[in-house]
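Many groups now describe folds with learned vocabularies. In that spirit, our science desk offers one protein's residues alongside their backbone shape tokens.
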Amino acid sequence: MTETERAVDDAERAPEQGGGRRQFGAIPRRLTGGVLVRRLIRDELGVLIVLGLLIAGIGIPYPDFLDSDNLLTTAHNSVYISLMACGMVFALAMREVDLSVGGTYAMCLVVGALLVRDGTPPWLAVPVMLVTGIVLGVFNALVTTLLALPSFIVTLGTLMLYRGVGLALADGKQITDLPLDDSFFTFAGGDAAGVPFALWVLLAVVVVLAVVLTRTRFGARVRAIGSNPDAAAFSGIPVVRTRIQALALSGLTTACAAALALAFYGAGDPTLGQGYELQAIAACIIGGTPLAGGRGSVVGAVAGAMILSVVASGLVFFEVPINWTSFATGGVILVAVAADSALRRTGRRRR
């Protein structure tokens, strides 16, 4: 076993050891399927309970909320934030943050719409959008590394930079006149087996990234760096390369959200995505991914995004004035985080 392998394994085990001391060279402990399932249930239980209580709390006085079409619509509305949150988990887990996702989303959306309007087959425009998202994520990581600046500052700047480029490319206008009869818009922007196609994509992304974060060496490195960056670097873990990969992944999932938005809306609006970065971060935190790094939950992040979507939908049923929407959403976020934290503390005491 190499020094890097030992360090990664020790970083995985450190949160479970008293005092957080790392004993490099320890024999790795493999996670069996049963242990992994129990850990996932334990980590996501709090946020899933909160989500269930919210749905029940709205559905009891307003049964129409529980209508399958409304629930699917509510879930579909959360897809774009959910995909951003899936990538954001990896950044937050290694003590980075990607505030540029709102700008990346808008820019990728504009790039795809321009390509399609200029004659590129929509399905071929999608890989270009995905590559664009990856390139923007890599740029964030390179600037962060080369200038030795916090990713928070760098991505705050690139948020405005990317959005500005998107507005310039679109000439400040919505890009329309797209071939909406193409299969890309009718299939990817429609339903598959009675469920919005975007939800199937989200499900696939969640499964893949949950495995990547919990069962792969890349995921272990991300958590090792987040647990103790200095120890990770000292033990030989490629911190810079891992940072580039994590932020590239954030750009990729954001570009995926942009591609699905293009298919659904049938137009490229450079003003879309404003405030999405804060909602994605909030979804991650609600789902149990701390800003302090060291751990994260892809499933929890998606559940957090679903909570935000349920709250927004529930406010309509309760006829809450639009001026109180932000207040209510912020209050629910605080309650959700507090409830999840309380459940985690209870679980630790029982163990």
About this structure: Confidence is low (pLDDT under 50) at residues 1-5, 10-32. Residues 311 and 332 are 8 Å apart (CA to CA). The longest helix spans residues 33-59. The radius of gyration is 21 Å.
